[in-house]
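Bench log, entry 3. Co-assembly request; chain sequences pasted below exactly as received.
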Amino acid sequence: MAIDWNIIGIWIGAFYTIGFFTLAIGVNPWLRFVESTWLGAVVGFAFAVGVKNILSLGINPLMKGDVSVVIALALGALLFSRFINQYRHFSKWGVALMVGVGSGLGIRGAVDGMLLKQIEATFISPIVIGDLWQSINNIIIIVMVLTTLSYFVFSFEFKKPSDILLKLGRWSMMIAFGAAFGNTVTFRFNLFIERFTFLIRTWLQIA
Amino acid sequence: MTSIIRDQIPWFIAGASIIIMFGDYILDPMAVIATALRNWAVIVAAFAMGLAMVSMTIFHFRAISQRQSGWYYSICTLAGMLAMIIVAFMPPMTGSAQFNWLYKWVNTVSGQTTYAALAFWISAAAYRTLRVRSFEATLMVVAAMICMFANAPLSALLGPWKPAASWFLAVPSTGAYRGIVITSACGMIALGLRVLLGRLRPWE
Amino acid sequence: MGVAKEQKRRGNRDKIVLWGVLIILTIIPIIRPLGLPIPIDPMTQEFYNIIEDLPPGGKVWLGNAVGSGIIAEQLPGILGCATRLFEKDLKIVIFNIIDIEAETIFAQRSMPELENRGVLKEYGKDWAWLPYVPGVETALAAVAADIRATITVDHYGTPIDQLEVMEGINSVNDFDLVILFGHTTPFFAYIRQIVPSGVPFITQGLTMDLPLMMPYYPIQAKAIMKGLNGAAEYESLIGWPGLAISASDVLNTTHSWVFIAVIGGNIFYLYNTYVRREE
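Structure output for the full assembly:
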């Protein structure tokens, strides 16, 4: 008799789905089992992808004559020296490379993409001739940006009457966090709905 | 000598990398070395994925050998890891039918459901937290309720929920988050400078 | 001690009612869909227009960062967008950077559906699929600056120099449009590493990430499609109804319930705080 692996897969999928949903009633052996096996599978997958990438990005270019990757392969291999007490400090070299490159890219990206462009977007044409509503909106944005920025100034104390800036900043952020919370509710429900759609239509085959 | 290996060399590597990455932005001749550094960092990141596996294996083996609380779940974790590694290495690597089956019905389902299960908690949080205790809380409740209900297609038939939510997102929320983005950009730059100057050593 | 116990008991009772009704209101519309119309948001229309305005032969960077946690929101969007891109006369290169699961999930979930829809064009000539590159933002910066220095083979193991579609494509500057599907981590990485190149950039954001993404609209992100709702609207614009449209009905019932619960909770709170205290 031929085994329908798709049906078995659907039942396993339902087992894991309901297992994770049992989180609602508290930690239980079903939840612990699905959690542990999933964690192992995730790490196993990451390991396999890591090996695949080492082969394609490091070993293959080396075989084709690109000798410079030896440095990267050596630094990568040295990461595992952290498990040998005597040599654990060599593992910091590879981490330092990743931190340095990441920080350097982050700094230049932050300056252009996050700082300058955001300041440009805030103060560009606050008054729009002929469009009162857009002008009001632009002014509200400018006020909210400035008051939110003032909220994060800790170098000196805001005394009355300038503490109105802090209040406005706090109000601005409460509105922003409220909007974020409302959207987060929708996002979680979207995922929830998809899982129930799987259980009802794919697993139980109702509707 | 140990101090040089442990402290100075990592700092030199990080500092030089930051300078080269930033220099590449403003000086064209730096492009060659910057490209090489980026690619080396990508290769080192690939090795880092193996670190998680080794760390986890050591941790769970210790839990099993010492019969720590919940040690049988450590067996489940290692079994899951081993099963995934075996199917992932079947040719073609991470492309075999066995790998696709296991990944689809365990990894993907679990990943989806972990995030989906939080819907219970977010609805409970909405019920308990969205209370009009003060003026500021009321602002938050109003913004949350408008933005949440506007995401239901039904809201388009019941009044100007969608235009109101669009306005909340486009104007007050954007204003506040823009301030937060500018602040975090300054923080990121400061963090990078601290790494460059050796005041912060994340590799410790 | 008695008061704390009573409060805990009341809290548990509230949770049971809240979650019980939530589950019932989720199941009913799945079994019996309501089929309400879906109004089109201006941002989704903008996303649609930007793709429609691409010239024939235009080159598109399709950034796939859809992991398992966000499949429900992003898969309908990337499916709809990929369908429309394939229907048009464009050159498409699919990049799988930032998320380790994206390539595998695209292979298992998106490719079979695109094959079913019959829209896939000739591989290598009209489109290419590049593999996952580890390193998050570092990898993205490396690929954006020089694709061939970081990626030498495609998803199938073919050297990318042998793919006709990759002729003349060396960096992000050779593309006419960059589209991203993912959450905030890839979004911010693209803002920092891709947008400064000047290539137009559009994206579908998660519903919960929209407030974080809006400050970047419209100067850096030319259009932001809003989560599953945006995907449902896009599906109706391109004429390929799918997963997003079917989820819309359930959003009505679940959101209405939470709305009523919060209003009810606040009424009880105000009653207990002001009316009962006076008594």
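Chain B has a mean pLDDT of 91. Chain B touches chain C through 57 residues (CB under 8 Å).
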